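Researcher: Good morning. I'm working through a list of sequences from a screen, and I'd like to move beyond sequence-only analysis. For each chain I'm collecting a predicted structure so we can compare shapes side by side. This is the next one on the list. No need for commentary yet; just the structure.
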Amino acid sequence: MKIELLHIVDCPNTDIAEANARAALDTLGLGAVAVEVVTIRTEAEAASTQFGGSPTILVDGVDLFPTAPVRALACRVYATESGIAGAPTQEQIEATLRGASR
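Model: Good morning. Structure tokens for this chain:
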């Protein structure tokens, strides 16, 4: 399993998205799986990846929370139980990873 966290420079949500992804993987017994943090620096890079805005979490090249890819250095929001947030919660990542592994 390959996990990539795509983000733009100075994204305020990168750290929390990475921490939530890491915690979800640990909880699911996937602690050995690395989370590769990838900086998207140009609109060309955004257009050539499955970038859905910063931060985007990919599992084996597929967006964990599917959305239309963007071609800009843009932020992303997620609907969570407590409202709109800049990163998915650990619980959302866990639930989606469970579904992805079936």
